[in-house]
Design brief:
With about 375 residues, the protein is mainly α. It is built from 9 helices and 7 strands.
Amino acid sequence: MIRVTTNSTLYSYQRNMLKTSNQLYSAMNSIMTGRNFDSYAADPAAATRAFQLHSSLNATNTQASNNNTLLKKYSTAWDIADDVINELVTDLAKVPALDGISEEGLTNLNTNGQVMFAGAESIVQSLNSKYDGNYLFNGTDTKNPPFDLETAEDGRTYVTYRNVRIDDPNEAYYDQAYVDADGNNVLKEDGVTPMTNGEMLAQWSDEHQYVDIGMGFAVDADGKVIESTAFDGAISGLDFSGGYGLDEDGDPKNIISIMVRMSEIFQGYNAETKEWSSAGNLEDARRLMTKLDAAHEELSAQHTELDTTAKFLESNQTQLESSYLSLNTELLGIEQVDRMEAILTLSSAQTTYNAALQVGANVIPQSLMDYLN
């Protein structure tokens, strides 16, 4: 025969009552907070997965933000390039150039030259455009304007990129040590030898600005970004406008420089004496006209590439938003309670708690004072 003492009965009741109270508190807390668990210990497996999802959501959100900024940047660059190609180059370069190289256009040659120079200035201003306070066409240097027109002591005008001439016929100019806006040299890896103007142009032409937009961003053993895992967000106005240097004929490659050279030839013509200046003659202008056409086609190809890139970024933005939605849905499924199930659980816990109180009233022995009352 098992003897049940009063102390053991009270102990069992208190233990079960505490358990029932905890269940009721947990059910009420789930309703109030809307969460399945409040601590890692409550559900280690779910908490671990939730932590991973939070990390993925933060990364995806950052990638989407980066992608959206790039999308707007490239869309703006495309709009500017569209104006440059379809208006500035066509109206302020090709039209006056074609008129100028014709026999009938000799009388208006000076005027056409002025129009072409104004066109070159307009393109420089367009390629110095900003988006969100940053210069669009200056590679990784987004705080300084990329292009300018420099008038030399001999009266000739040169196009500059970051204060370095891109069309100087004197090859010795590109062997000179580069001096920045503050009057300082840029040293090579040895820390002693200064970079030359030519080396700086080559370096600027090959600049990269890698951004994480959800392509599996990674670096190699040397800490360098693996190109296939990141997006290169640098837009080089130098490459966009045709590059730098001179071709085999000694003519500039950059479309702005070609326009400047043709404008100098046209403005150097004397309509009264029918003589040409040292800047060139009609034959030179016609040769440059052919190269202007080729540079215009190359500019159109760059314009198309901007459009292709913008469409890729737009597609990637949609993918990132879809991934964020999927991750967030999974996270909510782990962290948030089912409201209907939570209400049923609370109702059940409340019933159990009330029943425990009723049992306690019948089981716990009354004291002498309770009996007298």
